[in-house]
Amino acid sequence: MVSLTIDGKDISVAKGSTILEAAALLGITIPTLCWLKKVSPTGACRVCAVEVEGVDRPMTACNTPVKEGIKVTTQSEKLSKIRQKIMELMLVNHPLDCPVCDAGGECDLQNACYGLGASRQEYSALLERREIRYDWPLIESDPNRCILCEKCVKVDHEVVGCNAIAVVNRGEATVIDTVDGKPLNCEFCGNCVGVCPTGTLISKPFKFRGRPWAFNVTKSVCAFCSTGCQIEYHTRNGRVERVTSEDENYNSGNLCINGRFGYSYVNAPERLTEPMVGSARADWNAAMGSAVAGLKGIVAKYGPDAVAGLGSPRVTNEENYLFQKLFRGAIGSGNIDSEARLGFAQAQKVLRERLGLQGASATIDAIDRAGAVLVFGCDLNAEATGIEYRVIKAATKNDAKLVLANMRDVKLKKFANSHLKYRPGNELTLINALTRVVLDEGLQDNDFVSSRIANLTELTTALSAVSVADAAEAAGVSEADLRSAGRLLGRKKSVAVIFGADLMRSSGAEEAVTALVNLSLLLGALGKDTGGLFPVYEKTNIRGLLDMGVAPDMLPGNRAASASGKNLWQIIEGIEQGSIKALYLLGCDPVASFPEGERIRTAFGNLELLIVQDPFPGESLKQAHIVFPSSVAAEKRGTFTSIDGRVQSLAKAANSPGEAREDWDILTELYNRLTGESRPASPASIMAEIAGLVPGYGADVILPAAFPAAGPISLAVMGVARPAAPSAQSYTLLPGAILYHSGTTTTWSKNNGEVAPAGYVEIHPDDAAKLGVSDGAALRLSAGTASVTGPARVTNSVQPGLLFAPYHFRSMNVNALLGKGAGSASVKVEKA
Prior knowledge:
Elements (H helix, E strand, L loop, with lengths): L1 E5 L2 E5 L5 H7 L23 E4 L6 E2 L10 E3 L3 H14 L17 H9 L22 E3 L9 H10 L4 E4 L6 E4 L12 H5 L5 E3 L12 E6 L8 E7 L2 E6 L12 H5 L14 E2 L2 E2 L2 H19 L4 E4 L6 H15 L4 E2 L6 H12 L16 E5 L3 H4 L1 H13 L3 E5 L12 E3 L6 H14 L5 H7 L3 H8 L4 H8 L3 H11 L5 E5 L1 H4 L4 H14 L9 E4 L6 H6 L6 E2 L3 E2 L7 H10 L4 E5 L3 H4 L3 H8 L4 E6 L11 E4 L8 E4 L4 E5 L12 H13 L7 H9 L9 E2 L28 E6 L13 H6 L5 E3 L1 H7 L6 E6 L2 E9 L7 E5 L18 E7 L1
Helix pairs in contact: 2-3, 7-23, 8-23, 8-24, 9-18, 12-15, 12-16, 12-18, 20-22
């Protein structure tokens, strides 16, 4: 600790602290302009100048470390004059265009001028206007307004990890610009806009929408991935005009493109605004009457098992709870499931049975301070960008060792100490080999293992059949790299293990997740204040969906159902075979986003009743008998549960278009009509009912992790699978998420469409040469009777024989090439 005096007050702070940080602990405010808590200081603006006794010149508080015994003065007449002059000099080249500047009213430069008394200008200069950059999607840059604080550059480099912008040129020609003049690496997250203290970087979609005081600001939760970022909707006349996030929020104000710009899906002109019966518009009374009559008629004729429903991670906990209650209580059917069946539900089953977990073992801020991080089968950039920011922080700020295991070169590769670029289908092989390395070289957490693991000898014996050399060869990595990865992870104070879609949707996913749990336990990843085990998912409320019992075998609170209903694929088979006559789709579009989409489309033609409740006219709606237009997250109240168990409240910020209604409101009326009851409902009353059934639930709480604090834990001992041989088929297609979209929802967003308007197929240069195709050439991919066509994107990010295509676009529905329960497919590739 270091002791010093600030404005006559004594304090002791940690070595390495700055004067600014020490002053803040005393409640002393030093003015700043370029300083930003979440990035390293630059000392660029000099506004935080303070006096240090015995030092001739003023010192910048933001980047001056404390020293033993120094005496600091933060307020004096001399300092006030210095700060005023600094502001006046800063304004010499700054255009006085406040009336047309989008930052007017929320400009840090304006505030600093007023706060520091810089009310007149004694200096002048010939202004040389620099070209405004209008050519970037979503972001506009006016370098004439720039004060070179470097906040945007720091956030881009240190938080987002893009290096898309930089300080360019020297002297009076210095500007902030894109690297090489083009936004090649830009993720269009807008975090640079969020921290810009002037109107230099602005949101193009928000430009000239109005002054900040003209908007209502509503705190809410991001509606896209499962990270659960906290946001603010800015609305006027019931319409969302922008989204921001404050630095004091859990996510430190950091958002991705979806969180900051994806809001425009709310205002999409394609939104459903009226109920429909058949192809005709109807009022709510007629549509409800038809739905009730149709459901009652099918139940009376065929029994309740002839009705099924598919829910959604896009709707709130309250709405998912009501959905399962509608089926189990009002209809009498347990045939309810969701897209969780495509991988997450099976992964959660392993976590629940092996560790007692429903999601992550710790809140995601525990990743920040981990000693090592393993990211396996997951593109965090696309699936959970907010968690990727935390991994980057751990690797760059806290020197965590990062091991990346992925079939492709994803963004985290540039931060990784080891990248295991494995061949498709070798997830289990690679995990078992890593585990064998940890055991062979004594890299396990001995304190944790000796006190908590009951059967280490059994696992060691089982894994003795694993040849690390053979496994490495089969997986397409070198044995040296595999052993190096094990050493990077082993013997660390704490380890964070993160896994995602590529692992959850792989062949034999349950065994692979089980093996990853074994590895996590040996590394001591669980039961500590830092690190942990983290499944991630691309959509908001996947954990809440399952906690609420939207599953055929689980009731709310993850209690086993006495009689299991049909799961997703059994429902589809039931429709094909004629045993299921009615289907209710809540906020999901299986034809456009599930595997075997064309099979599902054909099956829907057999239904006597298809009810679609959705904000948008997706592919499934084309076959609907009844349509209920619903609200989106910005237009409703309720809660979402993040992957790490934070139950966070939504607040209604905008008006639903036309006659669209909140999902809980629609489900409540339908339930009452089916049962003859007249119970009123609200999100608060529904949550009160949930809290009585689901342990720990309530609004704005953190669910306790169920990982046992004490007692022995048994490792799962399984047979050792043979390494997957390379497929005789030339190409493996891996559909997946990309950063610029979230599911199919953001394809309705004009903003996202400006950056990523359509699908494509990533192909290795060697494969492109064999096929005689160049970048942009049309490729046809086919599997069985299904085929899709899209432009080639020739890149080394995929390995030979592997194709990657984003699965967001309905016009290029690559998920249709997948078989049920598969995350990849063998495909035929040819020039279109």
